[in-house]
Amino acid sequence: MTARTLSHQECVKRVRSPERYREALLSVDGREPVRYACFVLDDGDLIVPTGPDRSLVRAANGRPVVVSMSQPGRGDAGWTVTGMGLARPLAPADRPHPVPHTTGALAGRFDNGIRIVMARLTGWEDVPEHRIPPQRDGSPGLPDPSRPQ
Fold first, then answer.
1. CA dist., res. 25 & res. 46, Å (int)
2. Per DSSP, what are the bridge partners of residue 7?
3. What does the DSSP 8-state code read for residue 149?
């Protein structure tokens, strides 16, 4: 497999499909990465709902956050997207209305959380190599040049 670099728009497209909900590893201000459920906005920004727990909001407010999301290949190309952004507390205008059915379990968790304003997303996808099989020797009707006649 070979790796193909993805642009920011291609990265947004990957992380938003097939659903806008995705799990991501977040590293706040260089700390150890932690897995969170995220909601991906149209521009690539992430909403990380936390429900009643405000510890992430206190730890991340105004700090840089490194994000990593990936999807292993399942017969097709897998991909990995990383990016960096700045975290801020979730505002009422940030909450999705209506909450998509795929994130229904998170509906009550949008009371608190952070919005990560992404500076840029970069990524790569694994592209399977297409190999042309070797030509057969001694095809019917054609003489094989490697054998004496």
1. 12
2. none
3. -
3-state helix, strand, coil in the chain (%, to 5): 20, 40, 40
Query: Across-strand partners of 116?
Result: 46, 87
Among the listed residues 101, 107, 123, the one whose alpha carbon sits nearest the alpha carbon of residue 47: 107
Distance of CA 8 to the CA centre of its chain: 11
Q: Is 93 exposed, middle or buried (0-12, 13-18, 19+ CB in 10 A)?
A: exposed
| Per-residue pLDDT of the chain in tens (149 residues, 90 and over written 9) | 678 899 999 999 989 887 788 899 999 999 999 999 898 988 899 999 888 888 999 999 999 999 999 988 766 678 999 999 999 999 888 877 666 555 555 656 777 899 999 999 999 988 766 677 776 665 565 666 666 66
Beta pairing class for 64-71 and 79-89: antiparallel
